[in-house]
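In keeping with the milestone schedule agreed at the kick-off meeting, the structural modelling team has produced records for the first pair of proteins. Each record is given below as a sequence line and a structure-token line. The laboratory manager (R.T.) confirmed that both were archived under the project's standard naming scheme.
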Amino acid sequence: MMIKISPIISLYRFNTSIVQRCKPKQIISRHLSTKDHSYLSPYVQLPYSYAFGRSEGNVIYKTLGQLMDERAEKDSGRPFIVSHHENLKKYYGDFYEEINHLAMAMHDILDIKRGDVVGIWSGNVYDWIVIQYACLRLGAILCTANPFYQSFELDYAIRKGEMKALFMPGKQSRQDYVNNYAKIIRETLSNKFENEGLPLYLKNIISIDGERYEENYFPSILQIKTFELNKLKQFKKEMDRSLIEAVMPDDPAKIVFTSGTTGKPKGACLSHFTLANNVSIVMKQFDVIGEANCCLPLPFFHSFAGVLGNLMPLAFPESQIVIPFLKYNLREFVESIQKHNVSFLFATPTLAIDLFNYVARKNYQLPTLKAVLAGGAAVPEETVYQFKATIPSCTDFRIGYGATETGPGLTGNRVDTSDADKAQTVGQPLDFIEVKIVDQTTNKLVKIGETGEIHTRGHNVMIGYWKEPEKTAKVLQNGWYNTEDLGTMDERGYIKIVGRSKELIIVGGENVYPREIEEVLHMLPSIEIASVVGVPDERRGEELCAWIKYRENVPQESHEQLREFCKGKLAYFKVPKYFLTVDDFPMTPTRKQQKFIMQKMSIEKLKLKPKKE
């Protein structure tokens, strides 16, 4: 069933089970329109910064399990996935059989039911996707854990999600060079972190590869049972249709932890409805219609690759996903693009910079690569131009914007967007999504061109933070999610990100947005990455500190020369007082800068007095 939304009427979500609208809409039975470049401009409520993504398409009110069945009926013989580092290729029909067998094994053997939380703690392997799809079939909630977690962090994820089962690398796993999984899981389940008891709800540990763990490897009080994934996938039992039919579109599908760029991760809970529409609408807006070999170098535990990447073939059956590596490796990355004729790439700004630098240094050619979808952080305008110059076949470099809490898509640039708008903005609201920019103090709409906080409402918004109602209430009110990002909107609905509200720096009473300074510094050809944070100052409250990573084998400016360069382009209070030359930045596993750590490190390096709370 799909719900037709008229162009200007908004879609509101007030709770986990009800989608309320201004008035009833016609129920129709066709998929999203795939007319090439048939786009409606967003409605913009001039002179204020409010826009709504109009569309000739439809919102899909189905579960992901239903979409899997539809795909199987139409084209089970098409290639579905290639794992370059595992030397593996799967067609959808074989994959569909595997996920059904695993889903029934999870139900009958592991006692996993609709609404139970299942954890996965692993790197990017083929079976990660098998496990995700099997959970979605059953209505189990997949809780994704960072494969680099250590025992304290893993304990937090297990407890926060209240995992009933955990899929992870087994003993003697080929993933052991990424992390010491066997040691960490034993430490995690043998300790009582934060004076809490042991997680008695965890009943099953399943080895994705390697050897099965002996059950006496864990504390006997937990009574944990252990299994091997390959044996569970051999459970030859037909899929029980009643299990799929019991799952509802508004049911929780995934718990995805936020990146931790500003502190301890929170578990964003996303529904089947959110995921189904996000992948369909985002990828349609980015023109992924027809055949496309899409490379996924980003970690699956995050929503960018774990939703838009892994679920994409459900919305666009002619597409195929390519997994390049287990652990970040530029050589394998380039090899996978060349060998599998990759035409579409998911990337973060850091990954894009690494790729074009590596290709230029090695003099490699990537003639099949046509388009890039970049997100996860602000993309410097210079990066876009450098990437396209280094890889001339890539004529389309799109920048999207969103958050874990928005499933993850929120805005995007369309195929007919000008190069200037693609480089300077994050695009317009996606179909059926509302975006408004409000004053941080009054919460009232600001006028076009004025800076404010970005809020959004629509099919993309999470149910809430898992088991954290107070934190949910702080960011989610009347269906509006507060991104805590600062931005501006123009009269066409194009949005430009200025920075994080938590990254706003106040210098002598003047508001300073780091991205403006970073863009100026990126004008210098010697600078690969520039990032600005605020540090305490007794006189002015805060001062600016710029972290600079220079390119290799090029002349480098002195810190004084950088300061003089900024003086010629910025107001005096926006000129950094401090510069730090670095080789790298503290990053999350999704390659986002952790500015709160950079700020602490800056204070230590500069021997400044920390700001009093």
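The second protein of the pair:
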Amino acid sequence: MEFGQKAPGAAGPGGDVIKDTTTAGFMKDVIEASRAQPVIVDFWAPWCGPCKQLTPILEKVVRAAGGKVHLVKINIDEHPAIAQQLRVQSIPTVYAFLDGRPVDGFAGAQPESQIKAFVDRLVGDAGAADLEHAIAEGEKAFEEGDLQTAAEIFAAVLQEEPDNIKALAGLARCYLKTGDLERAEQTLELAPPDKRDAAPLASVRAALGLAKRGQESGNLGELKTKVEANPADHQARIDLATALAANGEKEEAVSHLLESFRRDRKWNDEAARKQLVELFEAWGPKDPATLDGRRRLSSLLFS
């Protein structure tokens, strides 16, 4: 199923988007159903005058939403248990459910404009939740090495929300992982100017800069030979660490930078420490190499 499409069997305008329920049917019709789309519950009774004003407006606005939200009506005279559990004190009372729990509501008759705003807000919240779920799936695919799936998910999110920072960062990371530095940079440039310094983008930008410098640092074998020949050659050691990091050899990169820092902390304006900090930013605060590197750096700083 493509992102943004209705799930198979989802209701269209009218039809199943509006129904009556009972105490026994509440779990299926509201709690379970709200995991697929928002569900509005209208608590009413036949003798209630304001209910007769509100319910037709609710039905009209829900139908106009085209299946993005459902309406479930429950007669509290015939089925009082749910209303009692939710502490409904007067009718009409309306609750909105999303992901199995109440997220919004109101009591009393409302004009159509306010009902529409209520539904729009609910649909917007559901849409945002869908995007966050998709991004989480994309990040999971990325961590598992399924770059194709991850990139497709992030791209689908961007079709729905072109300035989504997490999706832009995720897609750029996919390009970066495949070595396509140009497209990674182009993806980062799609971020709005006021969001380009956001943490997810800053992390990818740091990783991109690291990858570029890694390409410029030279051949790994040659750099290793230079360091072995002269362990005090700080520039060669830092170049080697940069190339190793760009090659995904994080632990060895950290070790070389720490060794340079241990030998001469102040060399080239603390170049080794600054390079370490940049690596940590590129890898992210939760990366095992970042956590271990920070611990080892702290030990040196306070030794």
